[in-house]
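Milestone M4 deliverable, item 7.
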Amino acid sequence: MHLLNEEAQSFYQAHQSLFDFENLIYVEDLKTSRLISNYNEPCIIISSSGMIQGGRIESHIKANIQNPYATILMIGYAAEGTIGHDLIHGKKPSASREKTCRSWPR
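Output delivered:
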């Protein structure tokens, strides 16, 4: 907590979480996650998968990578050879990842 700025510390003290605010929805199941792909309102999808190797984030990236209104913001480390690493370095995922890349836009 000592690494947070004053505003974040105040928010945390009031809510006991930095992620407890109006309109924040935790998606914990596949059915709800799939609904996000058809959501037509502005939204932010937060994922812990920075490397984009497996999991639902792959589907969300695939669904939004060509959307001119979408921003894919990646922070942190993504190991070489991962989809996250490719995207950070401006590359499309390599064709050698058959399972993952089969449906990626080319």
